[in-house]
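Journal club side-thread
Mid-discussion, someone asked how the predicted structure for our own chain would compare to the paper's figures. Pasting it here so we can look after the session.
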Amino acid sequence: MSTTELAKRLGVSLQSVAPDTIHLRIDAQLKRTGKVVRLVQNNGLPASGPAPQQHLVKLLRLARSWWQEMCDDGLSASELADRHGVNKSYVSRVIRINFLAPQIVETILAGDQPAGLDARAMLGLHALPLNWATQTQSLNVH
């Protein structure tokens, strides 16, 4: 960036020893998470700071709701799928999210989840570990 232009925009005078340009380096990259592209720091956290992703919150709510419906009405995954017009595989993947470690759920609700933890990643959890510590480690949630 031009130091002359920067000084002008900041309303300060440019010293004679100032270089012509300043080079800034940001340890981040653009990464697709769900339907959006985010600026992500090298530690995996969004550069914009924490903000709950509504599609993840909605998915958590759906998982809890469907699990409650299965328990209350004594439904199998196939019966629940028929009731909601989806396939059994989708129901199973959504229900699995209901068993995430509380720390992971809290992290998602606070918007502090790693940028790569989006709805696609959550629905792709084929072998969700039962141990909560293993879950947080495998999903890189701290």
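Post-session note: The mean pLDDT is 88.
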